[in-house]
Structure formats: C-alpha cells, structure tokens
Specification:
Layout lengths: L2 H31 L5 H23 L7 H25 L5 H9 L1 H12 L7 H14 L1
Helix pairs in contact: 1-4, 2-3
Amino acid sequence: MDTRQDTNIAVELALLVALATLWGGSYTFIKLGVATIPPITLIAARTTIAGLLLLVVMGARGVRMPTDGATWRRFAFQAVLNSVIPWTLIAWGERHIDAALATILNSAAPIFTFLLTAGVTRHEATPRENCSASRRGWPASC
C-alpha cells in the first residue's frame, strides 16, 4: 500500500476537521458576541480582523494590492455581498435563535438554492443524480 497516499489522506482529513471546527465554532462565538455587542459592530470587527490577516498573508507571499479603482469597486461589491450582509444577518438572527440552528440553516443553503433553481428556472432538465444528492444532503446537514 502506498504510504504517501495514506499520509496525504490523513493530512487532508485533519485539515478538513480543523476547517470544520473553525467554521462551525464561528457561529458559537457570534452567539456569545451578540449578547453584548451589536451585530453590525461585531461583524465589522470580524471583517476588519480577517482583512488585516489577509494583508499579512499577502505581504508574506509578496503579493501586491491592486491600485486601480475598478478593481477596488469590484472588491467592495463582493465584500458587501459575500461577507458583510450575510454575516450581519446571521449575527442578527443569532440574537433570536441558537447557534446550532443558525449553523444548520446556513449549511442547508446550497440545497435550497438547488431546489429553488430547479423549481423556478426550468431552463434545463434536472438530472436524477442531482435530485438524489439533494435528498441525501438534507439529513446530512442536520
């Protein structure tokens, strides 16, 4: 048996577990944070810390920041759409529901997206494999 392949799988599984722990833990920390900090302030701090960390990583790798305005407008649009709005809404929601429920609802988003797209657009036939994966994915997200 190839030990190199086994080592890669073990490392990949360890990284996956670490990612899941960090990602899942963020909901618990948000729940703790919104008990004393308003959601917008909490997410602004979270986003700022993440941005500073990315700047450090970019500096360590020698990657330069873009200087043109068009790229920065795209960055701002993407940041608002993919980070600021969703995480602010999650933080606001966690003022009213448990972190575990927020995690489950967020993990079900791809399944809901598939079902909504399949039901509304109807521009192409949905393969049976996708429907089957959707049915199997729902219990797995809970």
